[in-house]
Design goal:
By secondary structure, the chain is α+β, with helices and mostly antiparallel strands. The protein has one domain. The chain is about 30% helix and about 30% strand. The protein has an eight-stranded mixed beta sheet with strand order 4-3-2-1-6-7-5-8, with no helix packed on it. A hairpin with a 3-residue loop joins strand 2 and strand 3. Helix 2 packs antiparallel against helix 3. The protein is globular and about 45 Å long. This is DUF4369 domain-containing protein. Keywords: Signal.
Length: about 170
């Protein structure tokens, strides 16, 4: 009997550990570009921390080589924030995103790039003056952690207002 319980415990522990390892391999980053200000904020989120960096806007603005960036905020995630992080992980992994969503009727404004990585999959998308509801939880999650000065602007009303009178062929989604 003891041997069976030990085996059962070992199997449950193994399954739990494997499940946790899959989740901890999830990470994402968001770049918030300000072309007029020639700057970029990058938010890198893993299962245990968030790091916010500020750097120059460059023509190859989604490269991961941010040597000139400066860390402006970083913190470890508490247990509640980690739990929310794992919920985000499961909400997106089986979803699909187009590489780009753009409103061509607005020439300058909000540009956000989202990049998600798991051990076995990568997804990236860029929103240019476009509101995509499935990205809202990620922005809200980051904004719930970072100080006011580093919150990401993601205004649904502003984006939808800019799309209202825009011809369909000017909305790329």
């Amino acid at each position: 009997m003891t041997e069976r319980l030990t085996t059962l415990f070992f199997l449950i522990l193994t399954a739990f550990t494997a499940n946790c390892q899959d989740s901890t391999n999830f990470e994402f980053w968001i770049s918030d570009l300000d072309k007029a200000g020639y700057s970029r904020m990058t938010y890198h989120i893993t299962s245990d921390s968030i790091v916010v960096k500020s750097g120059p806007y460059d023509l190859i603005y989604f490269s991961k080589d941010y040597e000139k960036d400066k860390v402006v905020f970083s913190t470890k995630l508490d247990s509640n924030q980690q739990s929310m992080f794992f919920q985000l992980d499961t909400s997106l992994k089986n979803d699909s995103l187009k590489p780009q969503y753009t409103n061509l009727c607005i020439m300058d404004g909000m540009i956000l790039h989202f990049h998600f990585e798991w051990a076995d999959k990568k997804i990236g998308t860029t929103l240019s003056n476009y509101y995509l509801e499935k990205m809202r939880p990620f922005v809200e999650y980051v904004n719930s952690i970072v100080p006011t000065d580093y919150k990401i602007g993601y205004d649904k009303e502003w984006c939808e207002e800019g799309m209202k009178d825009c011809p369909d062929d000017m909305i790329l989604d």
